[in-house]
Specification:
511 residues, alpha+beta, 11 strands, flat
Length: 511
């Protein structure tokens, strides 16, 4: 037994590992000086010091012997208190964690031992302290730093105490009350991977009532359905679970619980209790388009639901809910898009009409169907050229008007593309730098000032394998020149400014 005290703390502690845990984790000991700490073992004082800012102890002797003595303490006190090795779930979680704390300390020998002890140990050519700890743990407890196999679960090794407890509770084995009490102190005693075990702490009637494969899904269904699991319904849940296959799916569990009246119907989302302003049609065509869109959307939704339900991808409750939503959505469809389409046709808004209708047959099928029903214009099952002509005819434009519109659109597209190219060239030129004596200016200033000074002609010449460009002033017989570069945007920007100037001059002469 160890006795540890400071001016504000005094306690008898069973093992040295627990003392070291306090030194490392308890906030009280972080601010305490080593001189203010008193530690004794069986009445004999021990040396307390600090290493790397944390309290620790120093003991004489060999590293392996001292370290194995710490394992002896927790073995006799907690893992084998009556001479028989306990199962993981029979050991209190804080005591279980001491072994893994020992593994952690074995990787930091200088925290516990002096440099002389560490060097002496290394000179023996022995395995590392961690390897010593691993070997001893396997000999004593049957497992190493990875933890023991989950005997009542998957059989995979796991060092987390709560995993072993979870499977023990699921199997219905006897777990000490002290262990259960330790977990009862935590609001979230189990991680998400074993969240199914949380109910076993509060509803003991479910312990050993069904395999984990069933319990896991049942708890998930009840949780997502916001249905409580309690001692009041534990028996009926256990009885119904016997009807499930050995490894049921979420849908199978949901359906079974629903058939036995243990789940409520899925509630409508709150938004469906709010009124929707669907608007008013701007034309008879808008009415037809809204109807077709609502009908087709409902039909395709119901078709998908049928397929998913047949494949058991969704439960009966989810199927019923979405059937109901499909019926409600049919009446909540607005006139926003139908009115937009009707207005585009009335105003011959070809940009919008072509963007929506001039697409392959499988795109915007509902709108094309409405056009066929109301106007008698077929937009599917024909060539792309015929479809485009039909769209212009739908807007009241003949072939000559179509040609004129397309020519204007092409010219606008070319102009927009050229404008984007100029913007990109100007942005690059803005980042370029040119030196004029002691002054540095941007590439944009270089071009604009050069052209304003009469440098109005671009020349080029070969220089080795590269092409070089310059601005020259015709009035000065090209004697002086200003450098342009293709890669920094100044060439393209100069070409644009000169072309604009020529256009303006031509317009003046023509007038």
């Amino acid at each position: 037994m160890f006795h540890l005290s400071t001016t504000k703390f005094s306690r008898s502690i069973t093992t040295l590992l627990e003392v070291l845990q306090l030194f490392r984790n308890d906030s009280h000991f972080r601010a305490v000086d080593a001189a203010d700490v008193s530690l004794s073992h069986a009445g004999h004082p021990m040396c307390v010091t600090k290493f790397d800012g944390k309290l620790t102890v120093r003991m004489s002797g060999s590293m392996p012997d001292l370290f194995l003595a710490m394992l002896d303490e927790i073995d006799g006190a907690y893992f084998r208190p009556n001479g028989k090795l306990l199962e993981p779930w029979q050991i209190r979680p804080a005591h279980w964690q001491l072994l893994f704390f020992a593994f952690e300390l074995s990787t930091r020998p200088l925290y516990l031992f002096t440099s002389e002890q560490v060097i002496s140990f290394a000179n023996l050519g022995s395995p590392s302290l961690f390897q010593v700890c691993e070997k001893e743990a396997r000999a004593r407890f049957g497992f190493g730093a990875g933890g023991p196999p989950v005997a009542l679960g998957s059989g995979q090794v796991n060092g987390r105490h709560e995993v072993h407890l979870a499977y023990a509770l699921a199997a219905g084995v006897s777990v000490p009350e002290a262990v259960l009490a330790d977990y009862g102190l935590h609001t979230e005693p189990f991680g998400n991977d074993i969240r199914w075990a949380r109910v076993l702490l509060t509803v003991p009637e479910l312990r050993g009532a069904m395999p984990v494969a069933k319990l896991r899904v049942l708890v998930s269904v009840m949780t997502h359905s916001r249905q409580a699991i309690s001692s009041a319904n534990a028996a009926v849940l256990a009885m119904v679970a016997r009807l499930l296959p050995n490894e049921p799916t979420y849908v199978e569990v949901d359906d079974l619980l629903c058939r036995h009246g243990l789940l409520d119907a899925r509630a409508l989302p709150e938004t469906y209790f709010e009124a929707v302003d669907i608007g008013a049609p701007v034309s008879p065509f808008a009415t037809v388009l809204r109807r077709i869109m609502a009908d087709e959307r409902k039909s395709s939704t119901l078709e998908r639901l049928e397929a998913r339900r047949a494949a058991r991808e969704i439960s009966q409750r989810e199927y019923d809910l979405h059937q109901h939503l499909a019926a409600l959505d049919h009446g909540r469809s607005t006139f926003e898009f139908p009115n937009r389409m009707a207005t585009a046709i009335a105003n011959a808004d070809m940009h919008q009409l072509l963007d929506i209708l001039d697409r392959p047959d499988d795109a915007n099928r509902w709108t094309k169907k409405a056009v066929r029903e109301f106007y008698g214009v077929k937009l599917t099952g024909i060539t792309a050229k015929a479809r485009r002509r039909a769209i212009f005819a739908l807007a009241g434009l003949d072939e000559a008007q179509q040609l004129e519109w397309e020519q204007r659109a092409d010219a606008s597209r070319i102009a927009n593309s050229a404008a984007r190219d100029v913007d990109r060239a100007k942005a690059r030129a803005e980042s370029a730098r040119y030196r004029y004596g002691n002054k540095v200016i941007t590439g944009v200033q270089h071009v604009e000032q050069s052209i304003a000074s009469g440098f109005s002609k671009i020349t080029s010449y070969r220089y080795g394998a590269s092409q070089r460009y310059s601005l020259v002033a015709p009035a000065h017989d090209g004697v002086e020149s200003r450098t342009l570069r293709a890669n920094d945007g100044t060439l393209a920007y100069a070409q644009y400014l000169l072309s604009q100037g020529q256009l303006a001059e031509h317009a003046t002469q023509s007038s």
